[in-house]
Structure formats: structure tokens, C-alpha cells
Amino acid sequence: MPRSCKWKNNIGVVICTLNEEKTIGDLVNRAKKYASEVCIVDGHSKDKTVQIARKSGASILYDEGKGKGNAIRIAVKKKNYPVFVFMDADCSHDPDEIPKLVKPIFESKADHVTGSRLLGGSDELHGTFDEFLRLAGSAFVTWCINARFNVRLSDSQNGFRAVKGKVLKELDLKEDSTTIEQEMIMKTLKKGYRIDEVPTHEYKRKYGTSRISVLKQAHRYLFSLVKYLFF
Ligand SMILES: Nc1nc2c(ncn2[C@@H]2O[C@H](COP(=O)(O)OP(=O)(O)O)[C@@H](O)[C@H]2O)c(=O)[nH]1
Ligand SMILES: [Mg+2]
Fold first, then answer.
1. Separation of 45 CA from ligand 2 center, angstroms?
2. Could you tell which of 40, 76, 88, 91 is best to mutate to test the pocket of ligand 1, judged by most ligand atoms within 8 Å of the CB?
């Protein structure tokens, strides 16, 4: 298991949080071994997420109450890391996989690297009907992206990813919800930047239930897919 990362000084870890007091302290402590800074972008949590993150050494930003995409856009605007690593706060992503994720970027082989749950496995993508819908929806979106951009990705929806700061700032991201993950991929490809993916494992959310209802957002995914595929 890696203990540090030789590219640490050029990495900033961004974690979007909404009521994640049970996991955020542990996650910040584990992630800071691999980054010059760990920043949380909080969605005005009602619990002690912000206090615990601050105590663990994270810097704090707030979103504008519009969703996780909004939180990511705020970090991209306010932070100037050479490489951004995005992770979820529920401990479904393992900070020890950060070196593997950023490697293609620092070896000049990619500008944007997504963690693939299809290659690395997931404890959240199969089981309940909601999880089945996520897997099916994600597979459909990924197939559309592959066909349109002539690439062969396996996962277009994972929040665990690394992107060059310079590239992120050029993408002019607009989405407020989790549709930002597919927006990031399509805009990266449209601008001719290189995408790679590495296998990363998705663990089950450690406490509580998902803060995001994919079913309620299905129309948004479809709308944003068509928008960024063709326009
Ligand atoms: N800042 C912010 N973070 C959010 C918001 N909604 C969800 N998150 C965070 O985004 C991450 C992914 O959410 P999660 O509930 O695990 O979604 P799932 O993994 O798709 O089931 C978690 O770290 C959440 O705390 C939001 O509106 N604002
Ligand atoms: Mg989660």
C-alpha cells in the first residue's frame, strides 16, 4: 500500500460534502498524505462535517445550494492546483488509489483520468433496483460517448477522477448536479484532450444513504447527454 506520492505537491484533493460527519475526518486524514491540500466543498451541511474537516486540516469552500456539480464548479473556479483529484466523502473511494489515478497525468500520457468501477469493481452498482438503473443508465451513457468520440471508456459516471487544472478551467463547466461527471468527459474529448481510465474500486457508502436520487434526475442525464454529445 502506498504511503505517500511523489507528485504530492502538485495535487489538490477536492471532496464534496453534504452531511458526512461520520466519514469526513477519516477521509481527510487519509487523503492528505497524497496532496498539497485537501479542500471540502460543503453543501451547507446541518451536522458537524465542516468543523471536523477543518480540524483534520482541510480547507473549506461552500457551494450555492444547487448540487454536487455546483460544488465542483466552485472548487475549479477558486483553486489553482496543477492536478485536481475529486473524491466522494462517504468513503466509497480509497485515497490509497490516488497515486495510480494521477500517474498517467504526471507521465504525460493523459490530461484527465477517470477511475473505472467496471474495471475495478463496485459494491454499489449491483443489487437493488436503483443500483440496477444506475448501472444500466451509466452503461448507456458510456456507450453513446464511445460511439460519438471514438473512444473505449468503461465508466463515464465515477466521481473519483484526476484532471489537470489547466484543462478543467478551459472546460467552462455548467452542470449543477452529478451530470457534471459526464459533462467533464465529453468536453474534455471535444477539446481534443486525452482521457485515460484506471481500475478503481467503489466501496459501499460507509454510513447513511445516498444524497442523490438518480431516478429523479434521469431526465437531466438524458438532456445533458444530448446537449454535450451534439452541441
Ligand atoms: N457540496 C455538496 N456535496 C454533495 C451534494 N450532494 C451530494 N454531495 C456529496 O457528493 C458525494 C456523492 O454523494 P453520494 O450521496 O455518495 O452519491 P452516490 O455515491 O451517487 O450515491 C458525497 O460526498 C456527498 O456528500 C450537494 O448538494 N453539495
Ligand atoms: Mg456515494
1. 16
2. 88
The answer as to whether 197 is a domain residue is yes
Counting Cα atoms < 13 Å in the Cβ hemisphere of 19 gives 9
One-letter amino acid for residue 55 of the chain: K
Average pLDDT, consecutive stretches of 10 residues, N- to C-terminus, the chain (231 residues): 84 98 98 98 98 98 97 98 98 97 98 97 84 90 97 97 98 96 98 98 91 83 93 86
Question: Phi/psi class of residue 82: alpha, beta or left (left: φ > 0; alpha: ψ in -120 to 50)?
Answer: alpha
pLDDT for the residue 129:
84
Q: Is 88 in the pocket of ligand 1 (CB under 6 A)?
A: yes
How far is the C-alpha of 98 from the C-alpha of 139, rounded, in Å? 24
Domain CATH code at residue 170? 3.90.550.10
* Structural domain includes residue 1: no
3 belongs to a structural domain: no
Closest ligand 1 atom, CA of 40? 1
43 lines ligand 1 (CB under 6 A): yes
Q: Is any ligand 1 atom within 6 A of the Cβ of residue 176?
A: no
Is the overall model pTM greater than 0.85, yes or no?
Answer: yes
Ligand nearest to the CA of 42: 1
